[in-house]
Amino acid sequence: MNLINIKNITFGYGQTEVLKNISCAVSESDFLGIIGPNGAGKTTLFKLISKLLKPWQGKIFYNNIDLTKIPLHQLAKTMAVIPQILETPFSFTVNEFVSMGRFPHLSRFENFRHQDYDIVNQSLNLADVSRLSSHRLTELSGGERQRVIIAQGLAQTPKLLLLDEPTAHLDITHQVRILDLLKRLNKQTGLTVIVVMHDLNLASEYCDKIILLKNGEIFKSGSPREVFSYENIEEVYKTTVVVKNNPISKKPYVFLVSEEENKKRR
Q: How many Å apart are CA 74 and CA 52, to the nearest integer?
């Protein structure tokens, strides 16, 4: 069953068109990566799906309902959005911050119920940040903070988790931990994940489906094996690459070729 249906979406800023006639579908339990060079429209598509922007033309359906017809507080009960940069103006503790994920499920003056506390604790455990519960966000490393932000999203008990470059600015250890966590949740709980990514090899390794954008249009979509050919990558990114299979996972792996090495081949 399709959780998201995007039909003929066009959008831009001012007079500049950024996305052009985008159509695609995301099924329940998919792990979808959105990739493409800078300016291709990745974050704009992310914002449209998360209802932060409204399309000029076309429609997005969530659970077969027009996204524009779903109130934000209702949408937040089943869709969690993790932006690329999240400012926290107050120095919340980890427990306080993750607990905010339960707010969409409470009426205006309703107190936390036993099940809310249980869900917060479960979310802390799933994201492996229980030991940080009493720490303040300002005390955390980048990787720890990113896992706490994901824990808050999990506390919403979503069907769909949307993330904009969750591994940006993290070292390789924390990148792998974050993506291992998302993959585990996807496989074990059926959580649908849509993630915007710059790193092609991480996208290939963890995503089951890929959308490759070029100049605001879908250039190619499909499995990593279908999308990550050297022809597709060179056409979209305008750089020379070699694509080989990862010897362990057998997923496509993109090797960059420098200008110096390119000249040696001529």
A: 14
If one counts every other C-beta atom within 10 angstroms of the C-beta of residue 111, the result is: 7
User: DSSP character for 112?
Assistant: P
The residue to which tokens 């998302």 are assigned: 182
Strands 241-245, 252-256: pairing kind: antiparallel
Contact 48, 55 (CB under 8 A): yes
Q: Where are the beta strands (DSSP E) in the chain?
A: 2-13, 16-27, 31-35, 57-62, 65-66, 79-82, 160-164, 192-196, 209-214, 217-222, 241-245, 252-256
Q: Locate 191 and state its tokens.
A: 């959580």
Which fold, 1-78+159-176+185-228? Rossmann fold (3.40.50)
- How far is CA 171 from its chain centroid? 18
H-run or E-run covering 52: none
* Whole-angstrom distance, CA of residue 90 vs CA of residue 186: 31
Three-state DSSP at 148 gives: helix
**Helix/strand/coil percentages in the chain, nearest 5:** 40, 30, 35
CA distances from 246 to 25, 51, 200, 201 (A): 28, 36, 13, 9
Q: Where are the domains of the chain?
A: 1-78+159-176+185-228, 91-157
The pLDDT, as a whole number, for residue 143 is: 86
Residue 123 sits at φ, ψ, to 5 deg, of -65, -40
Segment 213-258, tens digit of pLDDT: 999 999 999 999 999 999 999 999 999 999 999 999 999 999 999 9
